[in-house]
Amino acid sequence: MYRVLSLLLTVPVCLTNAQVPGFGGCPKVQAQATLDVQKYLGDWFEILAFPFLLESGKCSRATYSLKQDGHIQVYNRGVQKDGKQFSAVGDAFAPNASEPAKLLVKFSNSSPYANYWVVDTDYDTYTLIFSCEPLTGLAHVNFAWILARNRTLDASVVQSLEGKLANFGVDTSKFRATDQSGCP
Fold it and tell me: What are the GO cellular component annotations (predicted)?
C-alpha cells in the first residue's frame, strides 16, 4: 500500500494522469519479450492515458536518455491547466536482464520503484505502456499510456494498441486523449 501511495504522491502529473482502480488482482498483462533501449531513447508524446483525479493539462511528453550507470533518465514535462509548465526527472531500469521490457521507474528518492512495462513498441511510431500496482490483494491500480514519436498517432494504430491491452482484460474505455495542440 505504501508503494502505491508513494507512487501517487511523487510521480509527476504526466504519469499520475494515468490511474484506474479496480477490484481483485492485477490483469495478467505481458510485456514484450525484448527491448532495444537504444532505439527506445528519445522523445515520446502522450496520446492517450488512463485518467486520474488530478487533471494534468496538456502537451505531456517524455524524453528518455541513457545515464552513465546504465539506467534510463526519464524527463517528463507538460503544461498544467493554469498554463504553467511542469517537469519531473525520474530513473528507470530493467531489474531482470531476461525481461528487458519490464522496467521499474521512480521520480523521487523517497519513493519506491513502480512497474513500467513496455507492452508493445515499434520504436519509430508508438509505444504501449502498462503498469499495475496491487493493493493488499483486494484491489489494484492500473496505469496505461499510449505514446508516439509525433504529437498525433493514426487512429488505426491506437485501435490496435487498445485491442492488444483489452485482450489482457484491461478496460481500455478508461483511456482519455491528451491535448497536444498549441504546445511549446
Answer: cytoplasm; extracellular region
Nearest to 126 by CA among 155, 99, 103: 155
Give dist(CA 74, CA 98) in Å, integer: 22
Which backbone phi and psi does 6 adopt, to 5 degrees? -60, -45
Q: What is the pTM of this model?
A: 0.86
Instruction: Sketch out the chain's domains with CATH numbers.
Output: 2-177 (2.40.128.20)
Q: Kindly calculate the radius of gyration of the chain based on its CA atoms and give it in whole angstroms.
A: 15
Q: What is the pLDDT of residues 18-27, one digit of tens each?
A: 456 677 888 9
